[in-house]
């Protein structure tokens, strides 16, 4: 049995994880870290520094809570799985240092389907030489960042397939008289509206043919299931920096 603590257990992702925990017979969620929102069902603490030792800490706290959760994992020799976004350069360095003593996994998206898609996109971009690449994403009207972290994740996979760095080839917006697109650029298109959970399509457009690789999220529980799958996988692993690709394909 893998014991797990959830940092951010009272948040949207924390509650979603609790709702699907019964699907994982090898996982027992024993503790949670909460902020000001009360939570019932497991033992909770108001700061990660107060957590008792567990096999894995799953972090969906704020960037501020990330560092405390990571420090607790290092102190207790726990595995660390995080979906936190908006990390500072200093926090990225903290994660790299932690990976020397514990197994860590940071993912932009824990959906199994999205991570399979990322694998396919890199392979397709490598094979489809001469094809243009565009990344489309749509989310609900309240999402505050654009493009989404998942769109960037897929764009990075496409860039790797072309032996390029995304920031060198990304075209973030088009307006006015832009001229013809360059061969190497990877374009991004963004839609915001309604209650869309998440939709991503990578277009590979060639002369006389087109490939569309699409993932549509219909239920946020897919992200919770992926996070628990990662927690189950990383428990007991050697120190290192792992990805969802390791979870799915190793």
Structure description:
Helices cover 34% and strands 26% of the residues. The chain folds into 2 domains: 135 residues, Rossmann fold, CATH 3.40.50; 106 residues, Dihydrodipicolinate Reductase, domain 2, CATH 3.30.360.10. Helix 2 packs parallel to helix 3 and helix 4 packs parallel to helix 5. By secondary structure, it is an alpha/beta fold. The strands form 2 sheets. It has a 7-stranded parallel β-sheet, sandwiched between helices. The protein has a 5-stranded mixed β-sheet with strand order 8-9-7-10-11. The protein contains 8 helices and 12 strands.
Helix/strand layout:
Blueprint: E1 2-7, H1 12-20, E2 27-33, E3 43-45, E4 56-59, H2 63-76, E5 79-82, H3 89-98, E6 103-106, H4 112-127, E7 132-139, H5 149-161, H6 166-169, E8 170-171, E9 186-192, E10 198-206, E11 209-217, H7 221-234, E12 240-242, H8 244-249
Parallel strand pairs: 1-2, 1-4, 2-3, 4-5, 5-6, 6-12, 7-9, 8-9
Antiparallel strand pairs: 7-10, 10-11
């Amino acid at each position: 049995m893998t014991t797990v603590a959830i940092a951010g257990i009272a948040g949207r992702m924390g509650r979603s994880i609790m709702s699907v925990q019964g699907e994982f017979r090898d996982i027992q969620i024993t503790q949670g870290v909460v902020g000001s929102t009360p939570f019932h069902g497991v033992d909770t603490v108001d700061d990660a520094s107060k957590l008792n030792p567990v096999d894995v800490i799953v972090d969906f706290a704020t960037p501020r809570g990330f560092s405390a959760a990571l420090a607790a994992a290092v102190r207790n020799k726990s595995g660390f799985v995080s979906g936190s976004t908006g990390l500072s350069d200093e926090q990225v360095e903290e994660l790299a240092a932690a990976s020397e003593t514990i197994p860590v996994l940071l993912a932009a998206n824990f959906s199994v389907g999205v991570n399979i898609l990322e694998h396919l996109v890199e392979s397709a971009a490598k094979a489809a030489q001469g094809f243009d690449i565009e990344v489309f994403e749509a989310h609900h009207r309240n999402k505050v960042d654009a493009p989404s972290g998942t769109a960037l994740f897929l764009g990075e996979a496409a860039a790797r397939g072309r032996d390029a760095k995304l920031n060198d080839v990304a075209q973030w917006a088009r307006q006015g008289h832009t001229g013809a697109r360059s061969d190497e650029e990877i374009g991004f298109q963004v839609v915001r509206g309604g209650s869309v959970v998440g939709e991503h399509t990578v277009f590979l457009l060639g002369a006389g043919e087109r490939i569309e690789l699409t993932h549509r999220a219909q239920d946020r529980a897919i992200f919770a299931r992926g996070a628990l799958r990662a927690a189950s996988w990383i428990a007991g692993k050697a120190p290192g920096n792992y990805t969802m690709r390791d979870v799915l394909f190793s």
